[in-house]
Design a protein that fits this description.
Elements lengths: L2 H17 L14 E3 L2 E3 L5 E2 L1 E6 L2 H7 L1 H14 L3 E5 L10 E3 L2 E2 L1 H16 L3 E5 L12 H10 L22 H11 L11 H15 L16 E5 L17 H21 L4 E3 L12 H4 L23 H5 L7 E5 L9 H18 L3 E6 L10 H23 L3 E6 L22 H17 L12 E7 L5 E7 L7 E8 L5 H10 L3 E4 L2 E8 L4 E7 L2 E7 L4 H10 L15
Parallel strand pairs: 4-5, 4-13, 5-8, 8-9, 9-10, 11-12, 12-13
Antiparallel strand pairs: 1-2, 2-3, 6-7, 14-15, 14-16, 15-18, 17-18, 19-20
Helix pairs in contact: 1-13, 2-3, 2-4, 3-4, 5-7, 7-8, 11-12, 12-13
Length: 576
């Protein structure tokens, strides 16, 4: 038996011994997951850990080959994974989601519908990137939005061929790309970050995606517990930070303002789901020298600024410090950054884990991968395996010490049937790397099965929140164990948890647009300004009351008649 085959067999046996068959969804992850201090928790306040992978063209497979996608997701469940991150915007030029400002490809949207529904059926959680820094083919990408605004006379537009620095116009790492921009695009001001028309287009795209009602399961994206979290953008960076000897502070301010604005909108629209940035994790110019010292600073070739990462516009702690950001994430690309040393990787992870722990939010390694040449015997074991082992060892250390690292998602899972060498970053189940992936998945499943409680967490709490969008419309959100930011809890807004269908009926009476799952009632609906909303309950049965100033006094009588003891609000409120 080949060594990797022997290791895979041993890992499979270990996983089976810990958890049994993987054919059923993982119950600890049922319902919405939220952040509580440095933990992820479920509705019962049990600590949740993540294991899984990044998928490259999941939406495309949902549109073109749903049977193939089903097999992949089944294999993920069999492997013990619980989380998939993928691009909810498209990577292929002929299967992009947004084809123009406010225009969408319904075939692509239905592919996304299928992918989300199929993941939910299998108990998998999703982290969805809503747009991309890098891929010009996506019409929600930076370049395309700038181009459309320019065509409408609303922005200066792209002043040079930025694709020359991303699609074969240079050979090297991310530092070379910054140097390429300096040479090829000396006047490009990266208007994406500051132009109001472009920002409006981006917000419209966010609203269109989060408001989508799935054609497979009839759930609105923003109230589907399958979606664990949204990325503000995949790897947002500002290209002018290294130009003309600048220190990158202007870029840092612009990117942070964007993160704050878009994440607040996402939390308003989807308060039951989490939001994170989606960035690599570079420390910015205003962060401490100790932190900036762990940024990638490869040997300089071709005139790249040695501080390119610091000047990229990212400021990891600052960007994740907003109330509308639920957890930290980092990416790890030692080859792209020209620092393929385990010492760099360890320092990169350790500093971020320490900062996340100190600032009190959970953290994941959202993307990590390593180049290897499978055509060279033993190269996967030599070049990739030590780096994967390092990530998973850091996760184990965090679990043992109570630190903030809650999971890691590798890039990318490649089918064993792939012909030839495949992707240099692709990981196959026949690779030796898979042993440590399977081992980590078994550990995570075992940890989640233990249902470790988080002491500061209050289980079973339902809270109603009201927020106001840019158009001045008031929105109400009710749901299981939800924590919403940037909105005020209404007076009298707390009640008891319930799994009863009467909750859904009560929601329907109070407001349109509810969804009902096994964990309670999650409602996202528009309400008239000036109304007040509260939970009334009796013996765990939830009743939703929609109140106006005229009937506030009647609430007490209704609650009393049902045997409840909840005091009515004092007066109607129109707070945001």
């Amino acid at each position: 038996m080949h060594r990797s085959t022997m290791m895979l067999a041993a890992a499979a046996a270990a996983v089976a011994g810990l958890t049994g068959a993987f054919a059923t969804p993982e119950q600890p992850l049922a319902g919405f997951i939220r952040a509580q201090g440095t933990h992820f928790v479920n509705k019962d306040c049990a600590s949740i850990y993540l294991s899984g992978w990044n998928g490259w063209k999941v939406m495309e497979e949902g549109a073109r080959d749903p049977d193939l996608l089903a097999r992949r997701l089944d294999a993920a469940v069999d492997a013990g994974f619980n989380t998939l991150r993928f691009f909810a915007h498209g990577s292929d030029p002929d299967m992009v989601l947004q084809t123009g400002p406010g225009e969408y490809n319904e075939e692509a949207f239905r592919g996304l519908d299928r992918a989300i529904a199929m993941a939910g059926e299998r108990g998998l959680k999703l982290i969805l990137s809503i747009s991309n820094q890098w891929k010009a083919a996506d019409f929600a990408s930076k370049k395309q939005l700038v181009s459309y605004a320019a065509e409408l006379g609303l922005a200066p537009g792209v002043q040079c061929d930025v694709d020359a620095c991303t699609n074969g116009g240079y050979q090297g790492g991310d530092d070379d790309e910054f140097a390429c921009y300096e040479r090829a695009c000396p006047n490009e001001d990266d208007a994406f970050w500051t132009n109001t028309a472009i920002r409006r287009m981006y917000k419209d795209h966010v609203r269109a995606v989060l408001a989508r009602v799935n054609t497979v399961n009839s759930k609105r994206y923003s109230s589907d517990p399958t979606i664990l979290a949204w990325n503000v953008m995949n790897e947002p960076v500002c290209r002018r930070g290294t130009r003309n000897g600048g220190d990158g502070t202007g870029c840092a301010d612009d990117v942070d303002a964007f993160v704050a604005d878009i994440s607040a909108l996402m939390k308003d629209l989807a308060p039951l789901q989490m939001v994170t940035v989606g960035q690599e994790g570079y420390y910015g110019p205003r962060e401490t020298a100790q932190r900036r010292a762990v940024n990638p600073m490869p040997p300089q070739e071709g005139g790249a600024d040695p501080l390119w990462a610091e000047k990229s516009g990212q400021s990891w702690i600052r960007n994740h410090g907003h109330d509308s950001i639920d957890f930290y994430g980092i990416h790890l690309w030692v080859d792209n950054w020209k620092v393929p040393q385990l010492e760099f990787q360890q320092a990169w992870i350790d500093q971020h884990v320490a900062d996340a722990t100190a600032t009190g939010k959970p953290m994941i390694v959202e993307e990590f991968g390593k180049v290897a040449d499978r055509t060279s015997p033993g190269d996967v074991e030599r070049s990739r395996d030590p780096f994967f082992r390092g990530v998973y060892d850091a996760f184990k250390a965090s679990v043992n010490s109570g630190a903030a690292l809650r999971g890691a998602l590798f890039w990318e899972w490649e089918d064993d049937a792939t012909q030839g060498a495949g992707s240099e970053r692709g990981v196959r189940r026949s690779d030796s790397t898979w042993y440590m992936i399977a081992e980590n998945a078994a550990l995570v499943r075992n940890l989640n099965g233990q249902q470790r409680g988080v002491g500061s967490c209050v289980p079973g709490r339902e809270i109603s929140y009201r927020s106001t969008d840019a158009a001045g419309r008031s929105w109400l959100s009710l749901g299981d164990g939800m924590v919403a930011k940037n909105v005020q809890p209404l007076a009298g807004g707390e009640g008891a948890g319930s799994d009863r269908a009467s909750c859904a009926a009560a929601c329907a009476e109070g407001c349109a647009g509810f969804t009902f799952g096994g964990n309670g009632c999650a409602l996202i609906g528009e309400v008239r300004s000036g109304e007040q909303h509260s939970w009334g309950y009796r013996s765990g049965e939830q009743t939703f009351w929609k109140l106006t100033e005229r009937n506030v006094a009647a609430l007490g009588a209704k609650v009393a008649a049902r045997g409840g003891s909840e005091a009515p609000p004092v007066a109607a409120s129109s707070r945001n």
